[in-house]
Amino acid sequence: MTHIPGIVITGASGRMGQMLIRTVTESDQARLVGAVERAGHDWIGRDVGEAMGGQPLGVTVTDDPLEAFAKAQAVIDFTAPEATVEFAGLAAQARCVHVIGTTGMSDAQIAALEPAARHSVIVRAGNMSLGVNLLVQLTKKVAAALDEDFDIEVIEAHHRHKVDAPSGTALMLGEAAAEGRGVQLADVADRGRDGITGARERGHIGFHAIRGGDIVGEHDVLFAAPGERIVLRHVATDRAIFARGALKAALWGQGQKPGQYDMVDVLGL
Ligand SMILES: NC(=O)C1=CN([C@@H]2O[C@H](COP(=O)(O)OP(=O)(O)OC[C@H]3O[C@@H](n4cnc5c(N)ncnc54)[C@H](O)[C@@H]3O)[C@@H](O)[C@H]2O)C=CC1
Ligand SMILES: O=C(O)C1=N[C@H](C(=O)O)C[C@H](O)C1
Q1: What does DSSP assign to residue 97?
Q2: Domain with 255 in it: what CATH number?
């Protein structure tokens, strides 16, 4: 019997799913024990390594998440909001750590994770990279140090396939800026200005989303005042940074008490 945690990857054929499978199989601290895709997907029933165009990995892609989770200690889930809510319940049933990278979740979907978190460890973050989680801390500090003479705008850019906006990372950065200022983001967020918007409102936090080509993920937090500007920037050039963070979270979650955590907890920032 090995103590190396067994990991299931949901959304196995996706951009992040495939990156996660490579990251887990290359790690000597974790074992790939399952790969899940949606019902009807043409990878179901195939070896996941072969489906990715490589050597067999001895793991067959399934559309039965509970059967896969029952053999695992952790589930790493970068899929879609409805799927993630369903997986949270099943991961709790199987007592697996559930690492959630999925973005675009509504407040109701986030609230729906709470019953699962009474039985299992959930680590959820809109961005699993070390760099962005450091940027979140810096954003909070800079926002706390400056007054409302500095207008805050969060600008993000992603590939043409991304379905949600603003990005999960942009929202994390906006929340951090709002927290630094001691306000609620919901009260001050300006999302996607268009038309005769009127002059910018003092104290508001703006969000802007660029979509194009194969941009992995870029985030700027702009603090603009009369006469000067500060720009905090993170540029992701490789999805491996998200996969490495997610695997770190899955390993960190082993032995933690049930509840909801984020990458700040995992990274000790
Ligand atoms: N937190 C982070 O660090 C990061 C988060 N993301 C987020 O991860 C999510 C996925 O991103 P990508 O991999 O680029 O998307 P993608 O569209 O390439 O992959 C999503 C996969 O999930 C699968 N899926 C959807 N519903 C499913 C279900 N019910 N059961 C099983 N599989 C299901 C799809 O078939 C697809 O293969 C997005 O929400 C994205 O914003 C992406 C990168 C980093
Ligand atoms: O969809 C993506 O690709 C990414 N999504 C996350 C987000 O919404 O912030 C993280 C990263 O920027 C890539």
Answers
A1: E
A2: 3.40.50.720
Domain membership of residue 1 (yes or no) is: no
Q: Which of 69, 78, 219 to mutate to test the pocket of ligand 1 (most atoms within 8 A of CB)?
A: 78
In sequence order, which residues have a C-beta less than 8 Å from that of residue 253 and are 6 or more positions away? Answer: 74, 97, 99, 121, 123, 261, 266
pTM to 2 decimals?
0.98
- Substitution site in 15, 79, 169, 262 for ligand 2 pocket (most atoms within 8 Å of beta carbon): 169
Instruction: Note the ipTM here.
Output: 0.99
Question: Nearest ligand, CA of residue 246?
Answer: 1
User: Same structural domain for residues 94 and 166?
Assistant: no
Ligand 1 centroid to Cα of residue 15, in Å, is 7
CB 87 within 8 A of CB 79: yes
Q: Is the CB of residue 103 below 6 angstroms from any atom belonging to ligand 2?
A: yes
Q: What is the pLDDT along the chain (269 residues), one digit of tens a residue?
A: 458 999 999 999 999 999 999 999 999 999 999 999 999 999 999 999 999 999 999 999 999 999 999 999 999 999 999 999 999 999 999 999 999 999 999 999 999 999 999 999 999 999 999 999 999 999 999 999 999 999 999 999 999 999 999 999 999 999 999 999 999 999 999 998 999 999 999 999 999 999 999 999 999 999 999 999 999 999 999 999 999 999 999 999 999 999 999 999 999 99
